[in-house]
Fold each of these.
Amino acid sequence: MYLQQVEYFLAVVDNDGLNAAATSLGVAQPTVSQAIRGLERELDVELFHRIGRGMVLTSAGHALVGPARRMLRTVVTAEGSLADSSGKPRGRLDIRALAALSVEPVATLVSSFRQRFPGISVRIGTLHDEASAPSLVRDGHCELVVSHLPVLDSADLTVDELGVQDWWLVCPPGSDVPPDDPLPLSALPDVPHVVVPRGGSHAGHIESAIARAGGALRPAVIIQHREARCPLVFNGVGATFLERSMAEDAARRGAVVRQTEPSLSRAYGLVYEPSGLSPAGRAFVELARETAPL
């Protein structure tokens, strides 16, 4: 079994097929297909059911996923154990982060980290479900997870609280909004809203807080693409709740912005397994603790 075969196998698993896996790896599709076939011959098992053009894991394939991820994680950790010519860590750091945290604090942290450790490349994947954070770390998908807190089922892991994320109300320029700032949730203007689908932790948190204040959001647009919320607001489609840094930027561009009372906020932090951290991972944790606003 070759490491490249394992990498290609996981690429097919993570990208739901050969074509997408080949694209993510930057190789031709037949190259990935041959590697998978070779791995199956060596292991003498079928790892995927071929259904039309689709690839579905067999029971043997499912059994291999966890060990394969741990194998690659061990290699990444080993590569990162060697310092560069200046004595700083090098290698790759894999992080999963909630989309709601990707602008702030993740972008700021990664920027500072790369300035301090230019020899480390950072790969950031999306954390779709907070409940999966512990298993992503345990199964070797990543070294670190940036998530809202608390994180359930994490007794065997370390959770470092780093700060609190706030959401502010952002309305189209010229909107008739009460002058109060912060604005009581009970006094929210009855305007349509641009919202992300229910199920996300921050979306549910905001809806619950407004409901407790006796109100309700009236969706005008439900959108998966979070980055489109601001353009929709500026085009007059409706109001939305944005992370503080994005709301402050929207205010500078002319949007009507209000904080709320009570505030809409949640703590966030890092989830990791200390003994499994590479030098790059340890350096990131130290930087995050050093710069945490708490």
Note: The two ends are 47 Å apart (CA to CA).
Amino acid sequence: MSYLYDFAVIGGDNRQLFLADLLSKKNVKTCYYGLNPCALPSRYIPCFFNQTITASASLEEAIRSSKYIICPTPFSKDQTYVTTATTLGIPVDHLLEYTACDQVIYGGAIPKDVCEKGKDKGITLVDIMKFEHVSMLNAIATAEGAICEAISHSIINLQGSQVLLLGFGKCGQILAKKLSALDAHVTVTVRKEDVVAQAKAYGYDSFLLANLKEKVNQYEFIFNTIPSLVLTKDVLANVNFETAIIDIASSPGGVDFNYTNDHCYNANLYLGLPGKMSPKSSAKILLDAILNDCKL
């Protein structure tokens, strides 16, 4: 079946805006729906203002006229609606309803039940964040964004400070390296002895998470990358009120935010940092992966 457009860019944050702009510069036929071109100054996204891509009148029109559908990262926050920064509601069920078997849907962190519904309909859904190189490059933007938030929400310098990092996966390792480059004293806490040894081999102090409650009062910054509750109220009771707690784990994070809010701690959950802090770089990472996958 032939399509009017190569790509439809659906919903999402500023990454999707820049992704559409990058497509236009490659002279790829593109339409969009559920984006707000006025969210950024026109100098950043000229394709929308020069009308080199097309605004679709409806979700159905955008999908039925495009071979490839690019949805946001994360794909959905509630498994009911596609993530969007506009007031438009984009139901996931409608998205799947309008998609034919010969089309491909791309997105990041696609919920399991959405993948199963798509599979039942014979639709191909590709989760970009499952590509190893994408998740690694995405972690760079997340780490830089986390450092930016830490600086913005603290009253002291990172240089020379005592920093505790919870978790040592992809993002944790990149974050530790960047914090160390800023001359912060980085300590890593993890669940397993072999990862403690790994962190020490990289030059960081490290201890087991089981000892967190006794050691947590030593730190001026705490970065969490573990997507499960680790900073419980019992642990938080030993944290200094001036300590900046930067949680970048997947929602709902790893901090008891009911406790921190009730006791006025300096703690926040920061989601979607790549889209907020470096949307153009993040868009290029995603687009390169998509174009490579669909062989365009």
Note: The domain at 5-130 is CATH 3.40.50.720 (Rossmann fold).
Amino acid sequence: MASPALILRLNGLPVAARDRLVALLADHALVAIQEDDLVAPQIWTAHFATSDARDAAATAVHDAGGFEAIATQPADVEDDDWARRTQADLPAIRIGRVIVAPPWDLPVPSVTSDSHSASRIPHPDVVVMIEPSRGFGTGHHQSTRLCIALLQNRNLAGQTMIDVGTGSGVLAITAAKLGAAYVIAIDVDPDAVENARENIAANGVSDVVDAHVEDFTAANRSPAAVVTANLTGTLLSRHATELGRLVGPSGTLIVSGFNVEERQMVEDAFAPTFAIAESAEEDDWWAFVMIANS
């Protein structure tokens, strides 16, 4: 199956501007970004849910200010396994007491200095195994790490949760392993939900987490005590009302996926109905923990 993609030659685009570029692409059904180099990428291959979304993204890049140096080229990648190959070198990472690891780098209780077959990270309290695929959420992006860190600061024992834009299911699975009683994971991308269901089963939390293909803007669900939404600044601001409806009385909403330039826009969008209880930042990416007004 071909993946509609847009090849972007960055031509020295500054790091701060790259964050804005990610946010812009994410407004057009972006699935994932493949980089030519993990340390100093110069070429991105951005994968989209549809060809129309890809073409709209290309137009948006050309029309937006600050991206004049970028050269774009549409492509169709004939490789169902591109994400697995691209992310094969991703290691296990620790966020607080949570480790997010691919199957080939799972932590073990103890390792020796000459071990090559297991992660050198000591066994943590919580291990979340994620198989990289077309859904976001391996835990390596700053916004995902911020959400995982903030989830650990909440008492999730016995709580219900909705994970909006679940991607690989990493946040939903983490919540289940931190004690949540029931988690609904939703995403508009069927491929992401399929990957999430595989990860949910592999982590042994199928009795706690249900994943569904669903548009949160049209969701008709009972509110949950906790809602996570790792989206984009534009989506969060545009759909603050719809996200708010998913949160129960005095419930908690954790939002991420917005950069420093979008922070005030997101804060203003939720201000009428939510109060910020905690915030976190990493490399100019931000996340808020917000409590619904009584």
Note: Confidence is low (pLDDT under 50) at residues 110-118.
